[in-house]
Amino acid sequence: MKDHLGRPLVAVTGIGIVTPLGWGREESWAALKAGTSGISRIRRFPVDKLRTTIAGTVELPEEAAGGPVVSAAARVERMAEAAVTEALAQAKLGDDGAFPGPLMLGMPPVEMEWPQRFELARQANGSGAYPAITERALGRRDIYETFLFGGVGERLAARFGTTGAPIALTTACATGASAIQMAVEAIQRGESDAAIALGTDGSVQPEAVIRFSLLSALTARNADPEKASRPFEKARDGFVMSEGAAALILESLEHATARGAEVLGIIAGCGERADSFHRTRSNPDGSAIIGAMRNAIADAGLSPEDIGYVNAHGTSTPENDKMETLGMRAVFGEAPPPISSNKSMIGHTLSAAGALEAAFSLLTIRDQVLPPTINHDEPDPTIALDVVPNVARPVEGLRHVLSNSFGFGGQNVCLVVSAAPGA
After folding, report:
1. Active site residue 173
2. Is residue 313 annotated as part of the catalytic site, yes or no?
3. How would you classify residue 146: left for phi > 0, otherwise alpha for psi between -120 and 50, otherwise beta?
4. How far apart are CA 1 and CA 188, in angstroms?
5. Which CATH number fits domain 11-111+147-418: 3.20.20.80, 3.40.50.720, 1.20.1080.10, 3.40.47.10?
6. Structural contact between residues 180 and 104, judged by C-beta atoms closer than 8 angstroms
7. Catalytic residue among 255, 313, 376, 400
8. Torsions phi, psi of 212, nearest 5?
9. Tens-place pLDDT, residues 107-143
10. Under a CB-based contact definition with an 8 Å cutoff, are residues 402 and 415 in contact?
11. What is the spatial distance between Cα 47 and Cα 49, in angstroms, rounded to a whole number?
12. Among this protein's residues, is 255 annotated catalytic?
């Protein structure tokens, strides 16, 4: 029931997933194993003048039925609610609306979007000036509650009856992994027997697409959306924005065992390192990336040789994939384990990515199948890694997976996900 440092082992007893591949854990996982792409042309807003016109999008049921497009903040909350509901059902916990632990929510920063700004500008006689818009927004409770960063966590905490104040956090592309780390550490410190760890993002909206495009981060391979995300491949030219959510129900192994829960796996180790080199680029020496990977493995009480597979950050940008390769070589030497990128199929889900990839890592161990890196047409000679190209690979005896999350601003979090004891 304890790890090598005497801390409670942290078990996963529920997984919930929403991705462009489907609403639900098994639907998304089956499509991922099959190498199916969830990337398509953006349909929820005009893209005529945009450099990038593709993304991985998740439609809400009312949108699919022809209803109006909702704001990113509302989409974040709806996907999060669906993921937590599915995870709780699998864990068989919190059925009475009272969950015995806190909510750790990883989500993107939120702000008023163009439709709300245009509405307020019209009310201000056409003035789009910030003071005029702000004055019109005063007293608009609907806008305030929708775009209040902490509001999403407060409403989800009330919906699921979690204890204490919900924690809402953002650490760029490492956000989902950070939420898991915070939940794990709360259980390890004995502050709670259980926690909900959640990463969610619904940022495919005009302003966000334009901002990432101005950073030269997005691919412009619009002609064939399903082929656009190409991690580790020679012709990669940027990531594909996407959205989704993943929730993990975490409990101390003792708590899960005492109530007879099925243990799906263990979050065995968490490692983080940061640098302040650049707003978007990693330090060329790779020290923070390497340190985060090593810290996670050491925190799990393992050595690099124990890791049988790495779930890559693998964004499909020239810079990231080069740096992740550097980290792999530094940590694992001349014989690194296989590594593949879920983002080749679902795109980069930003604040949700770390949680989704940890969830898929658990399913990788469960089914003993490594998901592929699709669109790997021409290997990059500078990336000497086994990237599980194009087709999923059955394996045997896989017990430990390293899941990498490397964020803008040098925020890096890595997790070691392990098979349940005795499995």
Report:
1. yes
2. yes
3. alpha
4. 11
5. 3.40.47.10
6. yes
7. 313
8. -65, -35
9. 998 776 667 767 777 777 776 676 777 777 777 777 7
10. yes
11. 6
12. no
